[in-house]
Write a structure and sequence with these properties.
The complex is a heterodimer. By secondary structure, chain A is mainly alpha-helical. Chain A has one domain (38-253): Orthogonal Bundle (MetI-like fold), CATH 1.10.3720.10. In chain A, 83% of the residues lie in helices and 0% in strands. Chain A is built from 11 helices and no strands. Chain A is globular, with a radius of gyration of 22 Å. Chain B contains 10 helices and 20 strands. Chain B has a 6-stranded mixed β-sheet with strand order 6-7-8-3-9-10, sandwiched between helices. A 5-stranded antiparallel β-sheet of chain B has the order 13-12-11-14-20. Classes of the chains: A mainly alpha, B alpha+beta. Chains A and B meet through α7 and α8 of A and β6 and α4 of B.
Amino acid sequence: MRAVATILVALFASLFLLFILAPVVGLVSSGGARGVASLASDHELRASLWLTVATATVATLLGMLGGTPLAYLLARRAFRGRAVVAALMDLPLVIPHPVAGIALLLVLGRSSPIGGVLYQAGIRVASSSTGIVCAMLFVSAPLYVSAAREAFARVDARYESVARTLGDDAWRAFRRVTLPLSARGLTAAAVVMWARAISEFGAIVILTYNPKVVSVLSYDRFTSYGMSEALPVAAILVLFALVPLAALRALRAGGPHPST
Amino acid sequence: MISLQHVNARAGRFELTDISFDVPQGTYGVVIGPAGSGKTTLLETIAGVIRATAGRILLGGEDLTSAPPERRRLGIVYQHAFLFPHLTVRQNVGYGAAANEDLDDVSTRFGVDALADRSVESLSGGERQLVAIARALARRPEVLLLDEPFSALDPRTRNIVRRVLRTVYYERRFTVLQVTHDFSEAGLLGDVAIVLDRGRVVQQGDPEQVFRKPASPYIADFLGAENVFAGMAQPIRAEAPDWVQGHESQFAQYAVAFTTGALTFYALGDVVPGPTHAVIRAEEVSLSAEPSMSSVQNQFRGRIVEIVPAGALSRVTVDASGTPIVSAVTARSVRELGLAVGVEVVAGFKATAVHLC
């Protein structure tokens, strides 16, 4: 009976793994080589790839800038409304991304009060790389905040207490103790956010169809030229996604935080 | 000096309430209490890590109730050391050092100079505590807060760490407040004992006094008093026995007969008639083959029901008319008196050894 159960579990696990891997392997084997080759000749693909990396990096840096203090507060301070703030931060994760794009367009589009002011100041959000950054930030920053919060929570607050009694003010204790001890977790959080940002499509396509990031380019080629033209672009995106995945594995291989 | 005046503080759902005590400059205070009594919260409130919601905290005579931890000129050492894992031993010790000389001085004294370049993750438990204490002292604090710093150590290492700390303490004479759940530690180290229970100070004073005269049966039980009896106290004054009238006439007015089960014994205390508790330390109970003619006023014949060796002493329980009386005697006495389960003996203790609470 136990052996049958083991076989069933192994079977279902294998089927599940196949379900996840088959499309990815199929995509890369069909278009991977052509995708890599086209990097040399396809100017639009190269530009799109560069735009994707640049906007995802800027979005991640902005997410770190704003998300780190927020994650620290959520991990360390008990304040009124903390649960509400935490829930609000998770909201972009559960709403459909085209809806997120519509919401952003509503707030940052040229006809909105904020978008209007920005436009007057020479900052165009919709149909620009700024719009791409905004869309990426909106949908992926919650992942950073959530993971960064976990990273801070894993560092016992008493390390900071000791540092404070040894003469550090709050900021210095954070910089000298908490930050180094949570650095691995924060880096992993940033990698997750960056990976999520480069794969974003739904919110970006509403806010900024042009210039095209890789995900939008693959969609555009699929709808305009069909599967054969979309394959190399899509395969490049998949290969590219392996970079942050490998980085995450390397970070996690470093082991958990010591509690000394 | 550490002085707390009606301090309240909150940590999550736990509250410290109306905490008041003084630990004079250069003395060694010990906070004793069971797990969850608020000992660590108390230290962290003094350290400024937890904010006091009421009352005043004075350190070295200065009101530092609202001051941040870095302004309080104190050091804290936790049970689990909390050495910074990304720094070497020397970097840890020197983290807040006032000067390089202080860093070198404490490193040498605590024997951690030999570990200077090692990662703290490679240290043993005892080495970690030594480094943690050295780190706190390198800043030359006026107050040292110790949160059960020896409890995770094996007895040998504990003695080493304790001895080194004691030596530095005697030299520098800073004020120490140590938290422990082990009363023997308090008796060994403390000049002032503060007993904490459920966020309140329930007794404070000289450790010997707290040990001998616990304020309640609960404290007596917590402090490890083996003989805690519930019973009825009856002041006897005029009927005071000869031993009171003859030897210590001023005691006559405090003579009390205390009845528990089938036993009635003499005690001294200013009590009203009625139910109360009597506490007798096992060390105060002597055993003999026959009633002695000495000044031991309370003597009860009984049969030994249990002998439990505990280090240098053995705990011998005598059933005296249904009431168990525990005596702590040396292994040598056990041999010489031929003590064994079933043997009939006389358990005796002085009236002054009985504490009514």
